[in-house]
Amino acid sequence: MMESQKYAIVDLETTGHSPSNGDRMIQIAIVIMKNWCIEKTFTTFIHPGKPIPLLIQDLTNITDVDVADAHPFEVHAEYIYELLQDAVFVAHNTDFDVTFLQSEFIRAGLPKWHGKKIDTVELAKILFPMSLSYKLSDLASDLNIPLESAHRADDDAKATALLLKKCWEELLNLPQLTLEQLHKRSFRLKTNLSQLFFEALHEKRKKVGDSKDHVYFNKLAIQKMAPTPSSSVPEYHYPETNAEKMELLSCALPNYEERPQQFHMMDTIWRSFNNKTEQVIEASTGIGKTLAYLLPSIYYAKTKGKKVGISTYTSHLLDQLLYNEIPKLEAVLGEKVKVALLKGMNHYVDVTRFEHMLKVPDDSYDETLTVLQVLIWLSKTKTGDLDELNVTGGGQLLLDKIRKIEVPKTKMPLYDFYARALQNSRQADVIITNHAMLLADLVRHEQIFDNIGGWIIDEAHQFVQAAIQRDEKIFSYTNWKYLFGQIGNYTDEQLFYSLQRAALKKQRVAKQTLLLLEKRFMQMTTQFDGAINLLVSDIQQALKNMNKHDLKPTIFLQDLDIDFKRIGQVSAAIQNWIDLAEEVAVQFEGGVDELAPEHQYLLEQWQYWIREFKLKASEWDEVFLIQHQHYSAWIEVDRRSIPASIQLFKKPINVTTVIQQLFDPIREHASIIWTSGTLTVPNNERFITDQLGIDLTVPIEVLQASPSYYSGAQAYVVTDMPDIQAVSQTDYIEAVAHAITRTVRTTEGRCFVLFTSQDMLRKTVDLIQESELLRDYMLFAQGVTAGSRMRLLKSFQKFNHSVLFGTNSFWEGVDVPGDGLSAVIVVRLPFSSPDEPTFKSRAHFLQSNGRNSFAELSLPEAIIRFKQGFGRLIRSSEDKGVFIVLDRRIDTKSYGGEFIRALPPISIQKLPLTSMVQELGTWYNEKR
């Protein structure tokens, strides 16, 4: 029985990763567990016979002093070897611990250890597929496992033991059907998880009956659809007076503070909804914008029986609305609000396609792992949104094959998550969606948002970006070659090979047809390669006139002599292959006998790649053949790898008409509220609203929190930074690194450092790391440290002494409340690079129409971003922080005053660096 199985949970701390290069152990901990109880713990420091590197001392808090009296490994080797006998070896990343330990055993003259292994990283990835991170410290935090000192072997080993126990409990909570599938497919995993799955299945089968929380589709257990909250029908009266609002909100929200501007915004939206008017509201941080629009939205939906739509830009804000803000309003109202989250169809899993995929063996380890993750996830997910899953790069390819691509055939959404989302939206009071989904309504056959009585467009300044992204086209040479490689000809033994063999064996398609199909495939790839070769020679010609030191140049398409005839021949060849490939699919499906499961899956794969080729054919024409003056198109290459690096981008220069096309019909029957923390700039109030196509008669309300809200904020402009035009880039980066290190050491970390250039960020971080001046701090850098933006942010928040270096996407949309952030350092005013192709095209468009691109585009865009950067700092009236600008242009240029006027009413001091650091130290100590 597995319960009496002995587990040896091991963690090592070492001087480095490579025993063959002389790295040695400095601490070992082994926890012995039986019957899911800890029976014994062995832990000891080990003398490595060499100094411990500083980086390892920082990571583990183990110093040379700690190991000074410790014995070398050889003294403990036999006892450790004995402890591991007859045990399953468990570690959080067994590859490291087992390999290191084996080397040490051999060095001590013992034989290699042999036995079964369980890797808790692999196990956790399967059982917790929605976790953001599989680091031990992150899993411990998510699962409430105590872990006092990460990277100390004793604490880590105990936390890993408790993680293993949590995983066992999680297995026992799974539906029996899911456990059966897990066990059946687990034999290709890297460690011996199949035995654990089998024992869990054995336990499960002893229990009578299965959970009532699931519905069953063939061999899949799926989380039941949550029932729609039943609405009682209380009398809803919108709280007209401030006193009524205060009474309502303070009862349900502890520590609620009255904010007059928030109440004003509520009333403005309430009136606008009832009068079906349009309104633009800039609500600075501190207004409580989200609550200000949610309260009137829900009251309007409840009293008028009309849905309200809320659209935002980032997934982060969607989640915040759904899981943080809506529950607050439910507490205020004393009942559940009918809310539906609706994303584009391809965000959702297609359960049928996944079920067909289960009928064939997995191709790779990544596929096996991802299939197991999806099996578990289906038994837990309430939304079916594939974005919830944390999978590998190879797993992402599998997810793309199980996305929803067809409108559900049924209105009964038992097994169809997209149909569930649509049904929820039909029954909802409030529909939450994103800008991309709203824009997709322009071309959707059945308009989903027709019967909405009022719209809130949050993060409204990003609607322009969303419209550009919806209309952008990207051509990537490597993507096309990958696509061709998936089909292959007969000798490649790819999909065409498998289809031809099955079709001929079952006599479903004539051999002549298949030979013709292969010939057309060859013609298509030959035409494509020929056209690319011509493009390459054009690119190389253009590169001769460009800076040779620029390894990744940008070339505008209009500057190349494109052979449109050859481009057209590629289009024709692709279409010829698609036509015949579709005909073969029809013949293959239409035989007398029913298709075997593996042949059904083969056909689905074939149809999937035909759809991909149709998208690619349309993209080819859009990028190369359709010329339009309102678009800019450019090629980006890496000189060191042409043609492999070729990427072609085509983006609209102006999307105002597209946005008007979407909203003009809405204006006829519903109210529209545009809101954001940053919608205006000094001297150009309508910079954003003009791009959104909002009529000049629509008023803009600017709501600023009271000055007391910003009492914890202070701004400094450093006046003695070098002029970037007057010194070399190396000298400038040295000055920036010096200013950053002095600031960080004064505030003791918790700093954001915001750059406008990834190259400058990387060079600055490299210099700071080389200097070791911040070696006591955790440094996280976008594009340098692995992980997504949100993962970097989460890591940053875990450490008191940490610094986060970010570029464009960190200027907005990230929240670090309270003491988590002490300072925001702005390295350069956030002007777009004049060579950035989209910006360059827009600037050229304005200039060709006799307008000033600096005043009308460059400056207002930079000020908007600057305001967003400040918005990271003060997220509540208790927050304290400094905003430091290292770019002297804010002081020396005529436009600098506009940046300063864009900030809230706070103290702004202009000082040389040394004086600033002294002032900062005084201010920081006072505020602590």
What would your notes on this structure say?
- The protein is an alpha/beta fold and about 950 residues long.
- Among the domains are: about 1-175, Ribonuclease H-like superfamily/Ribonuclease H (Nucleotidyltransferase, domain 5, 2-Layer Sandwich), CATH 3.30.420; about 475-650; about 705-925, P-loop containing nucleotide triphosphate hydrolases (Rossmann fold, 3-Layer(aba) Sandwich), CATH 3.40.50.300.
- The strands form 5 sheets. The protein has a 7-stranded parallel beta sheet.
- A hairpin with a 2-residue loop joins strand 6 and strand 7.
- The mean pLDDT is about 85.
Sum up the structure in keywords.
alpha/beta, Nucleotidyltransferase, domain 5, 7-stranded parallel beta sheet, 928 residues, Rossmann fold, single chain, 34 helices
Structural class: alpha/beta
Beta-strand segment tally: 25
Shape: globular
Radius of gyration: 31 Å
Short characterization:
This protein is α/β, with parallel strands linked by helices.
List the helices and strands and how they pair.
Elements lengths: L6 E8 L10 E10 L2 E9 L8 H7 L3 H4 L5 H12 L3 E4 L2 H14 L9 E3 H8 L8 H7 L10 H21 L2 H9 L8 H14 L7 E4 L2 E4 L18 H11 L7 H16 L2 E6 L5 H16 L2 E6 L2 H19 L5 E4 L8 H7 L7 H14 L14 H9 L15 H11 L2 E5 H6 L11 E6 L5 H9 L1 E4 H11 L7 H11 L5 H33 L10 E3 L7 H26 L7 H29 L5 E6 L10 E6 L3 H12 L3 E6 L10 H5 L8 E4 L9 E6 L10 H19 L3 E4 L3 H14 L6 E4 L7 H10 L3 E5 L16 E4 L10 H12 L4 H19 L9 E5 L3 H4 L3 H6 L5 E5 L1 H15 L1
